[in-house]
């Protein structure tokens, strides 16, 4: 089965997919941008589950490039996969590899859960973390092209863009359908 790659302009909290990816901060306690929107839409149970994860297994917080799974609670998505993308520091602090790891670790979690056949990513690190959009799009596009030659799950991978500028950048990569 071939993996479908799509780009859409929407609010990630309203998508009907099995899992949405949260561009989280390392605390997992919510914040601004996508992180805050997902926490608000999912409801207080998400914060409580994140607190339990921190207490029980991640007392120092979620490391950059890693990912963790929670329930989706009040979201249409059954699951949230939280990942911490790199803060842009000019490209000299392993940002590219950390960004790749963030996407790959989310996809690994999705592959390991049979119930996750569709996943939606925001543009990880391209907001307040300052990762240059065009560079991030190139990395993600190449990563997903490589990914689908080795794996068949999840069967639908979406990049969900909030802004028209982000949407156009991903669409211009040529690998996504609409």
What does this structure look like?
By secondary structure, the protein is an alpha/beta fold. It has a single domain, classed as Leucine Aminopeptidase, subunit E, domain 1 (3-Layer(aba) Sandwich), CATH 3.40.220. It has helices at 33-42, 44-56, 95-112, 133-150, 164-172, and strands at 4-9, 19-23, 67-71, 79-83, 118-121, 156-161. The chain is globular.
List the helices and strands and how they pair.
Layout: E1 4-9, E2 19-23, H1 33-42, H2 44-56, E3 67-71, E4 79-83, H3 95-112, E5 118-121, H4 133-150, E6 156-161, H5 164-172
Parallel strand pairs: 1-6, 2-4, 2-5, 5-6
Antiparallel strand pairs: 3-4
Helix pairs in contact: 3-4
Organism: Salinispira pacifica
Pfam families: Macro
Domain Macro: 1-178
């Amino acid at each position: 089965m071939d993996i479908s790659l799509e780009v859409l302009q929407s609010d990630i909290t309203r998508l009907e997919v099995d899992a949405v990816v949260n561009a989280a901060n390392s605390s997992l306690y919510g914040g601004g941008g996508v992180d805050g929107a997902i926490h608000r839409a999912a409801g207080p149970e998400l914060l409580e589950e994140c607190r339990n994860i921190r207490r029980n297994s991640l007392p120092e917080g979620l490391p950059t490039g890693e990912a963790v799974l929670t329930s989706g609670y009040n979201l249409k998505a059954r699951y949230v996969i939280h990942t911490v993308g790199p803060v842009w520091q000019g490209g000299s602090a392993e940002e590219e590899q950390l960004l790749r790891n963030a996407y790959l670790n989310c996809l690994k979690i999705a592959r390991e859960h049979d119930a996750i056949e569709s996943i939606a990513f925001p543009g990880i690190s391209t907001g307040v973390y300052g990762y240059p959009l065009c560079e991030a799009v190139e990395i993600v596009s190449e990563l997903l092209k490589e990914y689908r030659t080795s794996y068949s799950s999840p069967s639908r991978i979406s990049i969900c863009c909030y802004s028209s500028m982000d949407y156009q950048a991903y669409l211009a990569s040529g690998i996504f359908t609409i």
